[in-house]
Design a protein that fits this description.
By secondary structure, this protein is mainly α. It contains two helices and no strands. It has a domain of about 60 residues. The longest helix is centred in the middle third of the chain and has 59 residues. The protein starts with 9 loop residues before the first helix and ends with a helix.
């Protein structure tokens, strides 16, 4: 089994070395950005969890506060539903085309006004 070698001289060798070093720098820069991205995503996850806990605490305190407040029944006043009372599952599943068509119809009615 014979091996063939290619030898570069002068400018070709210099160009090849520059190109190789530039590629290495690019790969190392990518690795550095990827590591930073992973670190930031981990921090984001931790902060999201902490934020959710705080929001849950505030909701609990608001519910307690709402129970402590006196409630009167006045004619004409309707209690606004809280976000928990909305049932998002009731929406019919629309295809992308149906959604686009619905939005276009709304835009047309707004343009007519």
């Amino acid at each position: 089994m014979s091996s063939e070698y290619v030898r570069f001289f002068g400018r070709e060798a210099l160009y090849g070395e520059k190109y190789l070093l530039t590629a290495e720098l690019g790969v190392l820069g990518f690795i550095k950005r990827l590591r930073n991205y992973k670190k930031l995503r981990q921090e984001e996850l931790i902060l999201k969890i902490a934020l959710k806990k705080k929001i849950d605490e505030v909701e609990e305190k608001l519910e307690i506060f709402d129970k402590l407040l006196p409630h009167t029944k006045m004619a004409g006043l309707i209690k606004k539903p809280t976000p928990k009372e909305y049932n998002l599952d009731d929406k019919e599943d629309l295809t992308l085309e149906q959604e686009v068509e619905r939005i276009r119809r709304k835009l047309e009615t707004l343009r007519e006004i």
